[in-house]
Amino acid sequence: MRYILGLDTGGTFTDAAIINADSGALMAKAKSPTTRHDLSIGLGHAINQVVDSLPEDERKGIARVSLSTTLATNAVVEGMGGRVGLIMIGFEPSALERNNLGQVINEDPVIFVAGGHKSDAKPQAELDFSALDDFIETHRDDISAVAIAGHFAVRNPEHELAARDYLRQKTDWPVTCSHELSSALGGPKRALTALLNARLINLLDRQITATANIIKEANLDADLMVVKGDGSLVSADFARLRPVETILSGPAASLSGAAHLVGEQNALVADIGGTTTDIAVLESGYPRLSEHGATIGGWSTMVEAADIRTGGLGGDSEVRLVDRGMIGGVRLGPRRVIPVSVLAATHPEIETWLDTQLLNPVASDTDARFVLPLFEGEPPTWLTRSETRMAITCRDQGLKPISELAETRLALGAIDRLVSRGLIAICAFTPTDAALITGAFTGYDQSIALKAAELMARQRSGAGTPQAANAEHFAKMVLERLTVQSSLALLDSAFAHQGKGENAASKNAILESLIIEASHNAHNADHNNNGQTVNGQDAHQTDALVSTSIRLNYPLVALGASAHCHYPTIAKAMGANLIVPEDADVAGAVGAAAGSIRQRSSITVTMPSDGIYRVHLLSGPMDFNSMDAALNHAEECAKDDAKQKAETAGANGIVVSSDRKVKIVQLSPDKTLFIEATISGLATGTQR
User: Which CATH number fits domain 597-687: 3.20.20.140, 2.60.120.10, 3.30.110.70, 3.90.1800.10?
Assistant: First the structure.
């Protein structure tokens, strides 16, 4: 009997599932809390639990371990990752204003170097190696990796390759070249994709190493594969070099798992985790691929991935109070925090601090908020002076209320930056705590959640009134807001799928108002409201001048450990037919186990001058006098490159196909003009 072990490391839980390699049947599953400070602990627990559920003589049948991970996705959404350098070859500084590149770089170093190429693949200037030397000398000790983006590098990667080789000779930095990640035009977008890849290299390398060690300790003779953002598999070594391709790995695996578990051909799928909610469309049983690259947390990348929209909204999202304006209220995310009731289970001193804060006559905006250090030893040398002081204080004092660590806005800012660098974590009130109060979720001390909610409820809005009447009222506010933000995200995805543009629902004040009303009614539908409800609607609203409703025509498939907790109410608000698979809690692990290997390659053909057809290869441009000859050569190269990538990714039994997209303008009945052609190769195979 042959088995495949699938793993899905989420922000909150690490899931494991074993499927029969021949029938696809789910044989066993397990869950373990994700230990973000040391991922190997949670991974080890999940692997050992699920392996121990098999008879001892069958454990040797596990031939493959497939890992899907939200690590890269969550790091991008939360703005985390190592400090890296960006080298822009042949670009003007104004390039930082495009595609939010400057915002993503933030305080990391960037240098603009002479060089790069023109659109016809000819050099626009010589590569300035002296500028590279200056960059190396300045940042040798304060960055962990480098990303390189060259002007029109997809037409000629000569300068990116030269800079890469030069840096590798002079330093031990991992180097990412933008042309290796995408063959599409758009320099700033390619630069952003390369930058994210550089930031993620150390993060994913640690997780892969931890997983490989656990597999060895469990005495499993199995190859390790990693799920890409399109749901396909690559070898662990391949993923180490190109971690950005694992952006949306977790949700892509969940989509594959949903198709495997539910059997629906067309559906809107929502996977809610602790940090994010991932929304995508199943078409004919397969995830729809994005035409423009993955969009994560508002950043548009060139990562080939399933058409998934990921937002910072989950069970452990930070609850933020609206303290401006006359009404008040709450907003959720995008940052993940540790639920106060969860951390109190291992740190009972939290209850004492909560009791002390409740005795204070005046509410503070730091109430029910704590800081937990995630590092040992000395802090990184590239931190600012204020960040270094705060990091050392957090390390030395351990878990503490924020109010005891930060008394100024400057100190609070240092804490936020240390959180974004992954050096400390915030513990605060979350939807998980709210669900504990209402009884929708169990497993932790409800009294802790009630005390934290009371502290939040008594804080003031801009009008000077308390945010909520009591703890129970505040918990309901939080869960209603989760329904509102989830419903708007679902509508945004549905409208985008229909070609209505991005954020069509969340930018529409009327739709948001409608969703707020529908959410309120859905949460009140199970209560008689003192006998004043009619079909789940408040009786006083039935005489409204205008009444509208929403209906989702596709089934709504909800995945994730908390899907059964939150999505019945969301489905009511959306007018949707809800499906929560029996094994929805491990859909990502099932999808990881059921994956196959797919690799693509794309080559562009242009006509720089009349009668000359230029094929833009990774090795450099090649000219032909015939369009057919150029297209045929590009096709063979694309197929060969895709096959080589599939072999590198660990594939066997490879099948290669190709596709041509040729743009030709008809100038007259007997004359045409060649504009451009994109030749794609696709290689598919099973794990070797």
Answer: 3.30.110.70
